[in-house]
Amino acid sequence: MKQSQLFTKTRREAPKDEVAKNAQLLIRAGYIYKEMAGVYDLLPLGLRTFEKVVGIIREEMNKIGGVEMHLSALQSAEPWQKSGRWSDEAVDAWFKTKLKNGADVGLGFTHEEPLTALMTEQISSYKDLPSYPYQFQTKFRNEERAKSGLMRTREFVMKDLYSFSKDADEHQKFYEKAAEAYARVFERVGLGAVTYKTFASGGSFSKYSHEFQTVCDAGEDVIYIDDATKLALNKEVYDDPEVYKTTGVVKENLREAKAVEVGNIFTLGTRFSEALGLSYKTAEGKSESVFMGSYGIGPARVMAVVAELLSDDKGLVWPEEVAPFRVHLIELQSDNEEVSKEAAELYRELTEAGVEVLWDDRDARAGEKFAESDLLGLPLRVVVSEKTLAAGKFECVERASGHTSHKSISELIGHLTLR
RNA sequence: CGGGACGUAGUAUAGUGGUAGUACACUUGCUUUGGGAGCAUGUAGUCCGAGUUCGAUUCUCGGCGUCCCGACCA
Question: Which domain holds residue A111?
Fold first, then answer.
């Protein structure tokens, strides 16, 4: 798209109340806008990056048999009352309200209950299992303290997948596959090298769960990493001797690090299926409770962690798969008709070749355009100017490495479409 | 939820019990044109309410809001 059509502005300075680097950069670059504490809007560039992350997650979930759906955010109290999670004592993060007729409703902070209730009408036989529905849905959590920009918010989209299996064995196989899919997701968004599958407490559901923790100073969690196996333990299970037996890691080999939880996978067992009456008939005609698991990733938090970790002193640095656009086309000396014509031609050809381009067609100075371009962080900058016109080749600069080269249109298209 | 800090223009910041200043952004004009350029020009502000006072942006109280530390994180 043309940058002249982009309504967002960049700023030199971040608002003083944003301390977290991810929020500072994303706000300065015009990717997000803060509505209130813990609530952010996604502006055009932010939405594009967010959607890239969503797309990656969607692909990986589909690969392991996930089937996408979309549940409502507004939830009736009934299934929650059945599971015992409606009361404020059980869950204090609830946003609750009432219908005009006085009925209690909640804004969902997760979806185990409504989905399990829904599935009682879909699952009745062992032939209906296993099943792996998932969604990208807005969650509301009335956090007592929102913090660190997009890291901990009160309203956020989560990819939540739920597994419905016949028994623990079948569940376990999928659980492992889901963990592998998660590893691929974090690899693709550029966090693979610093993201660890982490043993954690299972909360109220099971003895243990797994988190995917990305090492990052802005994180809220403390983990202990075993570099040999690339496994980690959350601090909450660090002193549990049983964890060492189960995982085989040796306490003395662990190193401590601050980390952000970018994903988690839970074994739920029959906690919800029993409460809500989700059972199936076996081949022998016996009734069994469905064995469940849940699997979450917050795409905006992932985006924030990428922003936090992969940026430099000039601004954001997006990996190709999550960048809002792949190419930042910058024309200088816009008053020169030849330059404008050349830029328009390059924009047309790249777009036709399927390359996403942000074209800075504005009449602004070179310094301003470069500084803004660095801040926005698109992977490849292509400059069209009187200089490049004279040389017959475009100047191409990689944002991450700073590597500069000079390419003709065909060389550039070849470079960008070679995969 | 406990503790702390803060609230001045779109943003970042000064300052004062007596007409509120600077920078960036924005308007307009001229110059400039490969790293947020220069000169000129104009616009724009004391979170809300009550109290003290001749007079409050400043002091006091309350509210609202924001951030940080801790607790919490299903």
Answer: 3-310
- Domain of A95: which CATH number? 3.30.930.10
Note the CA–C1' distance, A387 to B22, in angstroms.
39
- CA A16 / C1′ B54 distance in Å: 38
The nucleotide minimizing the C1' distance to residue A23's CA is B67
Scanning the structure block, which residue is given the tokens 């301003």?
Answer: A368
ipTM exceeding the 0.90 mark: yes
A92 CA to B1 C1' distance (Å): 11
Give the pair of three-digit tokens for residue A244.
Answer: 């060492």
Instruction: Assess whether A201 and A227 both reside in one domain.
Output: yes
CATH number of the structural domain spanning residue A383: 3.40.50.800
Condensed to tens digits (0 to 9), the pLDDT of residues A127-181 reads: 999 999 999 999 999 998 888 889 999 999 999 999 999 999 999 999 999 999 9
Chain B: nucleotides under 7 Å from a protein CB? Answer: 1-2, 10-13, 24-25, 32-37, 65-74
Q: Is the pTM of this model over 0.90?
A: yes
Element (H, E) at A200: strand A195-201
Q: What is the pLDDT of residues A381-407, one digit of tens each?
A: 999 999 999 999 999 999 999 999 999
CA distances from A73 to A110, A142, A224, A229 (A): 9, 14, 36, 39
A303 and A336 both lie in a single domain: no
